[in-house]
Amino acid sequence: MSIKEQNTKLIKTEAKRLGFLSCGISKAEFLEEEAPRLETWLKQNMHGEMSYMENYFDKRLDPTKLVPDSKSVISLLLNYYPSETQNEDSYKISKYAYGRDYHFVIKDKLKQLLNHIQEEIGDVHGRAFVDSAPVLDKAWAAKSGLGWIGKHSNLLTKQTGSFYFIAELIVNLDLEYDTPVTDHCGSCTACIDACPTQAIVDPYVVDGSKCISYLTIELKNEIPTEFSKKMDDWMFGCDICQDVCPWNRFSKPHNEPLFNPHPELLENTKKDWEEITKELFNEIFRKSAVKRTKYEGLKRNIQYLKN
């Protein structure tokens, strides 16, 4: 076994031990196929008010500009599919936000993985990324053979569907590279048909400015009236395109205690959410991604759903 193979095996074994669902590796290089796609998407204003998407165009497409001397992008998946979901009579929260904010949970695991690499392999430099820097997570995960990009633009795998987080370690270490897998969406249009705001404008193209997740989380202004009665009771995020995807029949509950929800999140009814106080909001979502909308944002969303 070559040194490269040994190092690759060591990294994948440790990733598994840390609880990652899977680990794939690709060469750190310019994402040629993604460049025109990203440019068109931005030109058509499909990013809405997410102006940060326009920044660092080059860095988004080339990890060597983000991490000097980088050789490999290590992509990792972490399952967040819950064993229990919310009360039927409730405003809904996207499943990824049930527990502790994933940024902290994953960053911690990535630090441990990088430390392990440095201890076992030596002087390796790298940076960890969890959806918080200009890195095209899904593109790298697909390039690393962890799944294919579905028609709803999420990463899909045959074994486990799409309810997982994607993260990367970009390192200055040559490793064995994985190859992409084939697309298994076929003629299915379940996600396109089910989206109440018709945000999936073409197969594989999502108009972010129409997406319920964008409207309830990213949009800081009032939600446009055109989406009235089309939000399907989602007050934070949306899982519709994932819930209807046939591949998610294979989702299995995660075993990360930090992703377990506050009991009230599961038990609350619509009435409870309508009456939520700032104190209770802070308690239920103390270390949750829901804090991104702030109390006022969540109240705005609930009010919009009520009308």
TrEMBL record:
A GO cellular component annotation in the UniProt record: cytoplasm
Residues binding [4Fe-4S] cluster 1, per UniProt: 185, 188, 191, 245
A GO BP annotation: tRNA queuosine(34) biosynthetic process
Domain 4Fe-4S ferredoxin-type positions: 173-204
Entry's transmembrane regions: none
Predominant location: cytoplasm
EC class: oxidoreductase
GO MF annotation terms: 4 iron, 4 sulfur cluster binding; cobalamin binding; epoxyqueuosine reductase activity; metal ion binding
Annotated signal sequence range: none
Catalytic activity field: epoxyqueuosine(34) in tRNA + AH2 = queuosine(34) in tRNA + A + H2O
Cofactor note: Binds 2 [4Fe-4S] clusters per monomer.
NCBIfam families per the UniProt record, alphabetical: tRNA epoxyqueuosine(34) reductase QueG (TIGR00276)
Function, in words: Catalyzes the conversion of epoxyqueuosine (oQ) to queuosine (Q), which is a hypermodified base found in the wobble positions of tRNA(Asp), tRNA(Asn), tRNA(His) and tRNA(Tyr).
Family that this chain belongs to: Belongs to the QueG family.
Name this protein carries in UniProt: Epoxyqueuosine reductase
Organism of origin: Marixanthomonas ophiurae
